[in-house]
Amino acid sequence: MAGPDPGPAVPVWLAEDDLGCIICHGLLAWPATLPCGHSFCRDCLNGLWAAGCAGPPRSCPTCRASAAEPRQLRKNTMLQELVDKYSRALREAAAQKSIKEVGRELTELVEQLVGIVRNLQSQKHLPESGPENERSTLSMGMSSSDGADLALASSKPVTSDTPERKMKDILHDLEEIQKKLQENFTWNGALEEHLQVELQEAPSSSSHPLPDHSCPAPRRAFQFAQWAISPTFDLRSHSCSLEVSEDCRVVTVSHWPQTHLWSHERFVTCQVLCSQAFSSGQQYWEVDTQHCSHWAVGVASWGMTRTQILGRTKDSYCVEWKGNSQLSAWHMVQETVLGSDRPKVVGIWLDLEEGKLAFYSVADQETLLYECPVSASSPLHPAFWLYGLNPGNSLTIRPVNV
């Protein structure tokens, strides 16, 4: 009888961020879901509330909505099962990778042994065409008086105990092992490499941080002067945890929830779009990130789902500073790690004529951080995310210095 069904596999689109706690930045442990729908590790949530770092007493760290008493927190068993399955999938993937690596190393070792044996064989000038050539080689230089001995020798089976014959047997066995290893491992490796090449060559690929040298973006910020704009935050889109300055160019995580009228156009998390939408042409703007511990800047369509995070959808792109010495680029839940240097000011170059998006560090010296293809099937707006657990975190759209 078949064993119990282990349950459905973890969906391929599920990423660690979907099962992560924004407080500890790890996978959820004993996940507790608040009435607003946001989930956190129970211990992280209790520790945050005990320290009084989440704004109003017992409020959601993400949206600041009122939450339940700590003793009323219950485990979200469905989330816990997903976390467990995701963890098992990661372990299995690591094990499979380890097996493949061992196979590749073994294949390389056998190839080296084959090379060594062939080298020794060539140094000894061994014949390669079989026993008949061995006999003819032995007969060369012999006198006619040795004919009887030669005839007698040829009537006896050729011994395989000589070092030369043993070497040939070893070479044959190694070649058989090499063939089997290649059948089991090399084909899979070649397939993976082929798929990676196809993905890199695909027009929509955004996994490579280097620019396309066939039509590179300008390398220095002052070259963007003629395309510089100063976009403004859209007051309809920012979440109730954010407040916007009078000139609509500074957005800040508020200490208390704002009394904005709720609508389906407002983000649930600490995100905001700009009013300006671009479907053609070339634009450039800069964002001061020095006063924000965790942030993301990029572009998104107005239709981006208001419960999603910037860079995790097909219609949004961004670079993100995680506050743990890691800068990454995000698109469609695919992360590209860019380095550990934190840019103080980020310049965004949007070239919809060429279908390219580029990010620069422009505080001290201009450095290209990341460049990728971009599709403007829908108009794109400048987009921003701020870490909601630190009231006072702010991002500023600053004038472009030329």
Plain-language structure description:
28% of the residues lie in helices and 20% in strands. The protein has 5 helices and 15 strands. It has helices at residues 42-51, 77-123, 131-139, 147-154, 163-201, and strands at residues 31-33, 39-41, 242-244, 250-253, 271-273, 282-288, 295-301, 316-321, 327-331, 334-339, 345-351, 356-361, 367-373, 380-386, 394-398. The strands form 3 sheets. Strands 3-4-15-6-11-12-13 form a 7-stranded antiparallel beta sheet, with no helix packed on it. A 6-stranded antiparallel beta sheet has the order 5-14-7-8-9-10, with no helix packed on it. A hairpin with a 2-residue loop joins β9 and β10. The chain starts with 30 loop residues before the first strand and ends with a strand. The relative contact order is 0.12.
Question: How is this structure best summarized?
Answer:
By secondary structure, the protein is of the alpha+beta class. 28% of the residues lie in helices and 20% in strands.
